[in-house]
Amino acid sequence: MEKASQPLQEFGGKEDDEDLLTLSLSTGPRSSAPAPPSSPFVQETHQLICLPSTPVPLSPPTSFFQQFLSIPQAPPLPPYHNYQTHSPNLNPDHNATVPQEIASTSRPCRSRRNPFQTPKQGKTDTVPAPYPWATTQRATVHSLDYLLSHNITTISGEVKCKKCEKIYKIEYDLQQKFTEVASFISRNKLSMHDRAPSDWMYPTLPSCEFCGSYLKPVLPKKKSINWLFLLLGQMLGCCKLSELKYFCKHTHNHRTGAKDRVLYLAYLGLCKQLDPKGPFDI
């Protein structure tokens, strides 16, 4: 107390009890955080804001929500335990009951066709026979017995020079040329490994009489290709991959893979058509 009274003595003079200011400090409960310094000239005021007890009305819903709320709701489905499923393998005597709401909304079952083994819309499996040795089925020829019985012993086709573009007509003896192809397959089938050899991939073509260039077979539209002529001349390798796939498609053979694979299937497929009993199983 002596230290507190010294400044008053220096400032005012006498130390009177009336001139002294008494300061009273009140301490609250102790806390871990330090309390801010209090001042006798500052008084804190707190104002309590009271909310109205009556609810405030909300604005009416917009037109979008009105339309959304006006949509009729679908009737709820019956609970799951009201119907049972049927498993013919587990209980053949158990009858399945399906709710009428579910049965009416189910789609009818339909069979799915294979788009790779059937012709496109507007096309048929049969076409007019382009040659006497061809059938009305696409990419199909008559058997050897049928051709020999109808006195068809010579197969002809057209070839074109690549340089001078002169067109020739070449004829092959049916029985002789087919024997050459069939004997080649029987000797080398195991070593081919389901792939066409280089002799089929790059066939030896005849030469032109005028310019000496090589002759390539004339390939018309796919439905009019002279398949038997190409087989006997071993010139199926001159066909494009799309043309070989066309043959495999209409003869129901696997037609995916490289060209040597599809070419192998074309050779054996044609030989199988000529001699169904021969060793030409794919």
TrEMBL record:
Pfam families, alphabetized: DUF7086 (PF23324)
Compositional bias of kind Polar residues: 103-121
InterPro entries tied to this protein: DUF7086 (IPR055513)
Coiled-coil zones: none
Source taxon at top rank: Eukaryota
PANTHER family: EXPRESSED PROTEIN, HYDROXYPROLINE-RICH GLYCOPROTEIN FAMILY PROTEIN
Region called Disordered, residue ranges: 1-41, 103-131
Species this protein is from: Herrania umbratica
Domain DUF7086: 144-274
GN (gene name): LOC110420939
Biased composition (Low complexity): 21-33
Protein name (Swiss-Prot/TrEMBL): Uncharacterized protein LOC110420939
